[in-house]
Amino acid sequence: MSDNLNSTELWDKVSFSLYQDLGAISFGSFVDPLTPVGIESNRFILKVPGEFADKIIDQWNTEIAMKFVEYANKETGKFIRPEFQKTDDSNNLQESPATSAAKPLEESEQHIPFSQDAGLNPDFTFDHFVIGSGNENARAIAQAVAEGPGKVYNPYLIYGGVGLGKTHLMQAIGNKYAKDNPNARIKYATAEDFLNDFTNSLRKGGDTNATALFKKTYRSLDMLLVDDIQFWAGKPQVQEEFFNTFNALTKANKQIVMTSDRYPNDIPDLQDRLKSRFEQGITSDIQKPDVQTRVAILRNLQDQNDLDIPNDVLQLIGESVDDNVRTLEGAFHKFEAKIRFMNKPATIETAKSILDEINANKKTVVTVDRIQQVVAAYYMQTVDDMKSSRRQSDLVMARHVAIYLTRTMTDMSLPQIGHAFGDRDHSSISHAFTKIEEQVEKEARMKEMIQALAEDIRNGQ
Ligand SMILES: Nc1ncnc2c1ncn2[C@@H]1O[C@H](COP(=O)(O)OP(=O)(O)OP(=O)(O)O)[C@@H](O)[C@H]1O
């Protein structure tokens, strides 16, 4: 997934998928003649040549638009819908009313009023963030941080499962601070961006300018937002560099906000001094939204997308899709695409049809292989190591968790599980299972982690 594709790059990728899907003849008639103009918010503007415009648009509205939305989603992670601008024969644009606000990408990018390279998504604001019991604490602290950065809650670390709004909330802090302080220097980077910037600065062969530029970029900020710091697990060099960046910024009372998919103590091979630095600030978690919050999120999406969907339909989708907010948004946009592009009514029946499709896609068979892969990835270990006799503590933990999940999620017997885990005997499988079972009963965090892993395993994520 990339946020940084421009409209031409995205069009190239999506039209390639459409070519494979539709075949050369349909592609030549209905896709090839179109030209991308730009992306405005969640609309992809396409120029349609005058002569065959109506026929082409009809074809899009019955078949191609849905596919476009899906392929564009795969590339960007966003839901972008196509909108058409007809051109007359002399090639002048005739804008339809719905598209008159659309501008080429280059111009729309200039709407960002402050430091252009902050890397913030303007849609990730507090206004667009729905508050519920699973996130109200994190949200309240985020507001305080945005209003008084570098003061009380520094650093601020938000942690929680996949797709629950960590990035959104972190960027809302940046967007609010930027709005209130247009000259503030703010940078959003994923932990991977930070690592890449750092290694690129080193790769320049000891060029002191490159190193100085890296340091200047990160150490002269007013606010640094770093996403997914679990990515640094077991990477001591980048941890060292971040430690220095962290010290430089906090010493100057500059704000640091971070996200992670787990509590810092659960990040394998994270240096103790970083852990203790993180503890100087505040940590809050985001939990899965309850049904009320899920329906409120759907209502929010409805308003943002200018739709009018009956309450019972929103309620049904909200009750049925309980994985995470990203999946919920996915369900909403699938529904939206059906009513916009396939002329389906916004009814319970249409909602049921998309829910059936979602469930059909979800039915991944739970196998021990799948469990081992998901758990190994979570603990940043290899499956082979997990099956081996090595006894390093993170590895043992990963092995025990995978055994516990295999016992609870499959019908395999203890000897069968033993065999799948490097020919262990059934008593050590039973021991591993009991150990984790006890922890699940005692520790809320362990229980949540097991639930999240089980969900990933089932969802085939
Ligand atoms: N409380 C909320 N209100 C409105 N939208 C939300 C909320 N929480 C999450 N979202 C939306 O759900 C999607 C996923 O959120 P986000 O990317 O912030 O998740 P994340 O926790 O950072 O996930 P990951 O661990 O995969 O990075 C985004 O489009 C975001 O806007």
TrEMBL record:
InterPro entries: AAA+_ATPase, Chromosome_initiator_DnaA, Chromosome_initiator_DnaA-like, Chromosome_initiator_DnaA_CS, DnaA_C, DnaA_dom, DnaA_N_sf, P-loop_NTPase
Residue span(s) of domain Chromosomal replication initiator DnaA C-terminal: 367-436
Pfam families: Bac_DnaA, Bac_DnaA_C
Chain spans, region Disordered: 83-110
Keyword Ribosomal protein recorded: no
Region (Domain IV, binds dsDNA): 340-461
Quaternary structure annotation from Swiss-Prot or TrEMBL: Oligomerizes as a right-handed, spiral filament on DNA at oriC.
Protein name: Chromosomal replication initiator protein DnaA
Organism of derivation: Fructobacillus parabroussonetiae
Gene: dnaA
